[in-house]
Amino acid sequence: MSTQVTDPKGLVVALPPHERANQSVARIMWTVALALVPTTLAGVWFYGIRAVIVTAVAVLASVAVEHLIVRYVFKWETTTVTDGSAVVTGLLLAFNVPASLPLWQMVIGAVVAIGIGKMAFGGIGNNPFNPALVGRAFLLISFPVEMNTWPVPGAARLSLDLSAVTGATPLGLVKDPGAAGLSGVDLPSYLDLFIGNIGGCIGEASALAVILGGLFLVWRGYVPWQMPLVFLGGLSLVTGIAWVVDPGVYIDPLYHVLAGGAMLGAWFMVTDMTTSPMSLTGRIIFAASAGVLTGVIRLFGGFPEGVSYSILIMNALVPVIDRHVKPRKFGYGGEK
Question: Distances from the Cα of 194 to the Cαs of 204, 205, 212, 252, 258, in angstroms?
Fold first, then answer.
């Protein structure tokens, strides 16, 4: 029940919040987990049983690490694993690694993602960086060979060892096309990029699957539709300029949008409520800047992919954005 107070003018005003939504952390997180089901199924279809095992290990390790920290480090009486946030982190972390990644490295990634990326700051709602991307960045720096070994989709769905059926990612092919330029590279079709059947991380298997999950979150009101679009728009702007300048060396922006982790980053990473700005304007600035940085890293950086690092950089700048872009205040003022 709201407490009522009387202001100096005799008006009876209830203390905020004035409107309450039927939402909770658990409801939101489990809805996000549900939205990730199409991407999970696509990863399993294209990369087989190893995708199932890697994803399961990532989720179980994330949940176990959070429970151990809550129970034996924080010594809280109630666990937080039931809110689903550790499950979402585990899923997103698994989607950011190849299906061939050794399981012990997957466990290390989960420990870093949950232990350092999330719980070191006090748990969900307090972490400034996306935990799954913290884990991916650590794995990419620590195990560059394993993190850049890509299984060929559909080559050995029932095999537990995918090391013998590896290939290149679409972004890897265009990163260093050689002296002949892009004309000498056999690139996947746009249909393959959209539906699936390309090499890469588990969550990069199908742009369509990611979009379906993202649209579900937009429909539920958990994701502002502007953020994914402006992220992809920023990426398209940078890569489009490069393509217009030298189409023989740089691939067109549509290829960049469909390839790699752009879709996963746009719909599930940039839109993370905890690590993005408070206001819608701030979120748009955040997403657009991350998209531009992704394009710059892809074109001129040492790695063919730049989604993770661009979002982490923008995570660090969220306090600056919030300081200068504040929500409009209503009912604020004074007598002259």
Answer: 10, 9, 12, 15, 6
Could you tell me if 203 and 269 are in contact, meaning their C-beta atoms sit under 8 angstroms apart? no
- Is the previous residue joined to 188 through a cis bond, with omega within 30 degrees of 0? no
Two tokens, residue 5: 């107070």
Name 206's Cβ contacts closer than 8 Å, sequence gap at least 6: 38, 39, 42, 46, 194, 195, 196
Facing residues of 167 across strands?
Answer: 150
pTM metric for this prediction: 0.87
285 is in which domain, residue-wise? Answer: 223-324
Tell me: pLDDT of 1 over 50: no
Closest CA to 200 of 138, 251, 147: 147
Q: Report which of 311, 221, 239 is spatially closest to residue 28, judged by C-alpha positions.
A: 221
Could you give the number of structural domains in the chain? 2
Say how far apart CA 325 and CA 295 lie, in whole Å. Answer: 24
CA distance 309 to 260: 14
State pLDDT tens for residues 89-128: 999 999 999 998 999 999 999 999 999 999 999 998 899 9
CA atoms within 13 A on the CB side of 43: 29
Distance of CA 125 to the CA centre of its chain: 16
User: Could you tell me if residue 254 is inside a domain?
Assistant: yes
163 inside domain? no
Conformation bin of residue 221: beta by default, left when phi > 0, alpha when psi is -120 to 50? left
Distance from C-alpha of 251 to C-alpha of 144, rounded to nearest angstrom: 25
